[in-house]
Specification:
There is one protein chain. With 503 residues, the protein is α/β, with parallel strands linked by helices. It folds into 2 domains: 2-145 and 153-164, Leucine Aminopeptidase, subunit E, domain 1 (3-Layer(aba) Sandwich), CATH 3.40.220; 182-497, Zn peptidases (Aminopeptidase, 3-Layer(aba) Sandwich). The chain contains 15 helices and 20 strands. The protein has helices spanning 30-38, 42-49, 85-98, 112-117, 122-136, 170-192, 200-214, 223-229, 232-238, 295-310, 355-368, 382-388, 400-413, 446-455, 489-497, and strands spanning 2-6, 15-23, 59-63, 69-78, 106-110, 157-161, 217-221, 246-252, 265-269, 271-275, 316-325, 336-339, 345-348, 373-378, 393-397, 417-419, 437-438, 462-466, 472-473, 483-484. The strands form 4 sheets. Strands 7, 8, 9, 10, 11, 14, 15, 16 and 18 form a 9-stranded mixed β-sheet that branches. A 6-stranded mixed β-sheet has the order 1-6-5-2-4-3, sandwiched between helices.
């Protein structure tokens, strides 16, 4: 797709469709009034008819009138005081999705209303809109089907219209936004693919292909080698399936190389390609969604590839422990004692609390490889979804300064997180008679205890992002289809790029 940024009036830009962001209770003066006049009063007519309600992400199509666009597509922003970077991404995605089934090749997007909502930042608006349009055209139905109804248009050209003086850096920002959006869509594709399609070995093959494409170092540790290395928790989950586990390790930059912030950053993602619960088997209701339990791994694999596209050679580690959690003759049983890579003895009380086991060994190994700061991403607990729903990710941090650093990246990415405290008083609930700790604590506070368990396997500044609620949608929304969302991909990319060395 060709990207262009033009400093022109929106009604003067030739396009099949002009996208017009509309605030709640619009006043038809200034540029919006002139656009309405040239559209033969179509916008005001929509408002009078009750179409421009101000409800966020609602869209309407109208004739372009005397503008140089065949159609106008309005998308409502809601209360302008509540517009943030996340809103801008989702507004753009909603507009793209509204074009499903339409014959559209060239789209113009009027940036000015969004830039004004961001304090006049046209460069940020250009990046976020392009990212939103890129993510908005994602359609998981095309993974396995040759033909789908209401197909999303494949644009030849996206023109970003910023009326006023030329904005230095807007074109580069738009390109950056497109690349980040494409990376999120890679993560979504991998996450949405079925368990009989993506086994741990296939996920490793996909990671290897991305590594070769972007000049990344990769190592895939098989079951025999993981056992020899002492990855007892990782193997406790993976040995129950006929599809053997794979510990996927990818690296940008040199071994133990520090970035511009003096970090050797590691991003670690939970890669349970299918989670039956193991011996502690899950109920059958909605078990088909458990192909999504690999979303964290897919996210870090895509994120390191995105960073390599935007800033090649940036020091970064990505670890994706990939397993299937299945009942079988070799499965771990409740009550089994396993030895973690860091030497801790873990009493496996519940085999469905498996994500923390594979992440623990992966984080220990990341530190052995020189990681000084770690972020893990995982569809870890149902409790986080019950607490925050599907639009806010729960987060923990062992180091407040590093947690704050991650949140700066999250703010730039336009993603929402809520910090959950690590309460040491709960540690005693994970005490074991036979080992150092249990993988599932008794009593309440299971969400906090999941973070406390993971903290046992890192000695460096660490942040945990629980995307069990936000990693995939169970129904379509105006800005996204059902299925994987790509959440936290942009945060990880922004975090890594903050340490990119000047080129």
């Amino acid at each position: 797709m060709l990207l262009r940024v033009v400093t022109d009036q929106p009604w003067d830009v030739p396009a099949d469709v002009l996208i017009v962001p509309i605030m709640a209770a619009p006043t038809f003066d200034g540029e919006l009034g002139e656009l309405d006049r040239r559209a033969s009063g179509e916008l005001r007519a929509l408002a009078d008819f009750g179409e421009l309600t101000g409800k966020r992400y609602v869209t309407s199509l109208a004739s372009g009138g005397e503008t140089r666009s065949g159609r106008l597509l309005t998308v409502c922003l809601g209360d302008p005081s509540r517009v943030d970077r996340e809103t801008v991404v989702r507004v753009a995605a909603s507009a793209e999705r509204r074009l499903a089934g339409r014959t559209v090749k060239r789209v113009a997007f009027w940036l000015t209303p969004l830039a004004d909502a961001l304090g006049g930042d046209v460069v940020a608006a250009a990046e976020l809109v392009t990212r939103g349009m890129t993510e908005g055209r994602y359609d998981p139905r095309t993974i396995y089907r040759d033909e789908v109804d209401s197909v999303l248009p494949l644009l030849d050209e996206l023109i970003l219209v910023a009326s006023g003086p030329e904005q230095t850096g807007a074109a580069g920002a738009a390109e950056r936004g497109m690349i980040i959006g494409e990376g999120a869509n890679i993560a979504r594709d991998l996450s949405n693919r079925a368990a009989n399609d993506v086994s741990p070995a296939v996920l490793a093959d996909e990671a290897r292909a991305l590594a070769e494409q972007h000049g990344l170092w990769i190592d895939v540790i098989d079951a025999e080698r993981a056992t020899e290395m002492g990855m007892g928790m990782f193997m406790a989950v993976g040995r129950g399936s006929d599809n053997p586990p794979k510990m996927i390790v990818m690296r940008s930059g040199g071994s133990k190389e520090r970035d511009a912030l003096d970090r050797h950053l590691a991003i670690v993602g939970k890669g349970v390609c299918f989670d039956s619960g193991g011996i502690s088997i899950k109920p059958s209701n909605r078990m088909e969604e458990m192909k999504m339990d690999k979303t964290g791994a897919c996210t870090v694999i895509a994120a390191i590839a995105t960073v390599a596209r935007l800033a090649p050679g940036t020091p970064l580690l990505a670890l994706a422990p990939a397993v299937e959690n299945m009942p079988g003759p070799h499965s771990t049983r409740p009550g089994d004692i396993v030895t973690a890579l860091n030497g801790k003895k873990v009493d496996v009380i519940n085999t469905d609390a498996e994500g923390r086991l594979i992440l623990g060994d992966a984080m220990t190994y990341a530190e052995q490889l020189g990681a000084t700061h770690l972020v893990d991403v995982a569809t870890l607990t149902g409790a986080v979804s019950r607490a925050f729903g599907h639009l806010v990710t729960g987060a923990f941090g062992s180091s407040q300064p590093f947690y704050d650093e991650v949140m700066v990246a999250a703010d730039r990415a336009g993603e929402r997180y809520w910090q959950i405290p690590l309460i040491d008083d709960y540690v005693q609930d994970m005490d074991s008679w036979y080992g150092d700790l249990r993988n599932s604590g008794s009593g309440d506070g299971s969400l906090v205890k999941s973070g406390l368990f993971l903290r046992e396997f890192t000695t460096k500044p660490w942040v945990h992002l629980d995307i069990a609620g936000t990693g995939y949608y169970t129904k379509s929304l105006p800005f996204a289809p059902r299925g994987a969302t790509g959440v936290s991909h942009a945060t990880l990319v922004e975090l890594a790029l903050a340490g990119a060395k000047a080129g």
